Amino acid sequence: MTDPELERWRLVLGAPASELGPLSSGAAGRDAALDWLYGRDGELERRDVRRPGRSGGDGPSLLTTVDWLDEITRLFPRETVERLQRDAVERYEIHDIVTDPAVLERVEPNPALLKAVLQTKHLMNPDVLRLARRIVKAVVRDLMAKMATEVRVAFTGSRNRRPSRWKLARDFDVTRTLRANLGHYRPDERRLYIETPHFYSRTRKHVDQWQVILLVDQSGSMVDSVIHSAVTAACLWGLPGVRTHLVAFDTDVVDLTSEVDDPVELLMKVQLGGGTDIGRAMRYAAGLVERPRRTIVALITDFYEGGSVGSLIRTTRELCEQGTIVLGLAALDEQANPSYDRDTAQRLVDVGASVGAMTPGELAAFVAEHVTR
């Protein structure tokens, strides 16, 4: 098979399309690596996808997980490797990717592996946990670098109409720049050439002391929210005018505020799974409130209450009536894809809470808007 397009289709369709012809040596390696993972898909049999039979012989031995990781790293670009690793741990639950020391030494840290570590760390012995911590530390470092910038932007002040000599992309003044450079428009090319860009300046705001209480549902389905809440809390920690609390809950409540400055250690202590008692967590948060009109309670959950919904509604009403801002966040990951109990969420809205979905950057901006004047 020499036609590159035909070869690509052969790789997409997998072993059932082997009659299209033989693959080149490089493509054959990629095909074997893909088949090792996706060949175990139970949907193939349900859809009556017939794969060539295999028989014993003196052919190459079956790939181990370590061999497979080495192969995909050699054969595919980094983005594809991350996708394959994510499918391995999330779709096919190949947990030895994050529980086998020999495998952990080879994997390149990425968010999918961080989630897998948090979901399987209870299966790890101390030696494996030390290796897994490398993944947690690397991914958290990357998230911190990105999210800390978003938080700093939110707290640096509001833009005003005065020009600035500091040329920052986030302060780019599009309208003024277009007007000032209209003379450089070339009709034949239908392009406007920018000779002099213009930027806004920012004004610093007065900062009052506020409490921000993050209540995070640590049930298994909320792993993305747990990760990003931990990093968001770390980014808010130490900012002027903000005192941050981080509380994780299932049927129990665990105050993790003392660990907020070290999100790696914090995430290694989180226990995912179990039931959900949102009302109990809200009552705990109410006990932390010192100045109701200077407090934001951000409840991060899917709103599927395992405890008393009535108790949750009563506590929320009391917080709102005393002037506390209550946010119900249905998701707190970078995509902010909400999946939640809309009936319970609506009942919280009816007593004064606000419910929606925010990315970590949007939450930081919301906090900054209320904390700064």
UniProtKB/TrEMBL annotation:
Gene3D superfamilies from the UniProt entry: von Willebrand factor, type A domain (3.40.50.410)
SMART domains in alphabetical order: VWA (SM00327)
Residue span(s) of domain VWFA: 209-368
SUPFAM superfamilies assigned: vWA-like
Coiled-coil regions listed: none
Stretches that traverse the bilayer: none
Pfam family, one: VWA_CoxE
PANTHER family: OUTER MEMBRANE LOLAB LIPOPROTEIN INSERTION APPARATUS, OUTER-MEMBRANE LIPOPROTEIN LOLB
UniProt-recorded name of the protein: VWA domain-containing protein
Gene source species: Paractinoplanes bogorensis
